């Protein structure tokens, strides 16, 4: 049921948001050229790696001049990038990842492979027992202001309590958070 809902919602969102997606792609291209999409290796269901799509919000060689994470006022983030990160527009291409089955609309945000070292083996296995999401409990509760411990606890809580009702609440909380302070 969840997978069917993911597919239907992602298709509808891509259709309805196509002007916004095109405008965002155009803004990225005008400021810093092509490519407008960034593909990063992330870890998904059962520890399988996949390429997660985002609108490019950083300079083209960002990965070679800094860490896999960003911080406040990261100089690698472009002017358009700051806006699309704050509004989460950079995440919209992940609707494609939902259609391909690599992601869900709701689940723990997918980590980069290097983040596995932050977990115990049991916690990593539990975290990878569900499909990662465009949004998750940690994002709905904390946005980008969580500590690693808070994020881990929220992700593990989601894997224990996963349900359609919880997914709907997370979607609602995420929408409410988007109108507030944005991400890095």
What's the oligomerization state? Answer: single chain
Biggest pleated sheet: 2 strands, antiparallel
What's the domain count?
1
User: What is the N-to-C order of secondary-structure elements (H for helix, E for strand)?
Assistant: HHEEHHEHEHHH
Give the rounded overall mean pLDDT. Answer: 91
Distance between the termini: 33 Å
Number of extended strands: 4
Shape, please?
A: globular
Which stretches are low in confidence, meaning pLDDT under 50 for 5 or more residues running? Answer: none
**Class inferred from helices and paired strands:** mainly alpha
Please state how the strands of the largest beta sheet are arranged side by side: 1-2
What is the percentage of strand-forming residues?
A: 5-15%
The radius of gyration is 16 Å
**Helical proportion?**
40-55%
Number of helices: 8
Describe the 3D structure.
This protein has 184 residues and is mostly helical. The protein has one domain (2-178). Helices cover 47% and strands 11% of the residues. It has helices at residues 2-16, 18-32, 79-86, 94-100, 121-127, 137-142, 148-161, 164-178, and strands spanning 37-43, 49-55, 104-106, 133-135.
What is this entry, summarized?
This protein is mainly α and 184 residues long. It has eight helices and four strands; from the N terminus they run ααββααβαβααα.
